[in-house]
Amino acid sequence: MDECPKQVLGSCIPDAVGPVVIATELGEPLDSVQLLQLTWQERIKLAYNIASLLHHLAHSSLGSLAVTDLKRQQFVLVDGQLKLADVDDLAITEPTCVYHTDCTPPRDEFRLIEPEPLFCVSGRCEGHNERSNILRAGLDFVPHVLPLSAPASLEPHIRQIVEAYQGLHQWDSSRLLEASRALVTRAS
């Protein structure tokens, strides 16, 4: 077994108001093959973990945080729980703006048909980080996590959650968390 490095790694966080400490756990890297080997129940629990993380990021004590590189490769599994391990692409503040149009997400970046309107409030794009996290998770992550092999009774709920991550429903992280929690309950 490889030995873990015995060094402390750090990163400068621009715009930080005070000291910031981030600790991550060691775990198994999450890859596509590993996801396919998980049971549909385990994958539904991972989807709940994702929704919990997005809700936490949207309501952190530092304000709404964005993970600008939200992909499967950023996560590890620790005792069956999904953990964010790569936080070097964390945005601490909402983007600045002058006009509401400054806050419209680019269609190409998120493959959106019609981007959801966001509003410029006090010089910041209100809700941008939360929306960005949801859409980024929907691009590369959630469609691979939610199971294709779940019972037929769960398929409409799974499809609705996947669509929400892809911007087809205007759900915030609280609504995603609620729907994911309900899916876990239905699956048990």
What does this structure look like?
This protein has 188 residues and is α+β, with helices and mostly antiparallel strands. It contains 7 helices and 7 strands; from the N terminus they run βααββββαββαααα. The protein has helices at residues 32-37, 40-58, 107-110, 128-140, 142-145, 155-165, 173-187; strands spanning 28-29, 66-67, 75-78, 81-84, 90-91, 119-121, 124-126. Strands 1-3-4 form a 3-stranded antiparallel beta sheet. Strands 2-5 form a two-stranded antiparallel ribbon. Strands 6-7 form a two-stranded antiparallel ribbon. Strand 6 (119-121) and strand 7 (124-126) form a beta hairpin. Helix 2 packs antiparallel against helix 7 (173-187) and helix 6 (155-165) packs antiparallel against helix 7. The longest helix is centred in the N-terminal third of the chain and has 19 residues, at 40-58. The chain is globular, with a radius of gyration of 17 Å. Residues 1-9 have low confidence and may be disordered. InterPro entries: FAM69_kinase_dom, PKDCC. This is FAM69 protein-kinase domain-containing protein. Pfam families: PIP49_C.
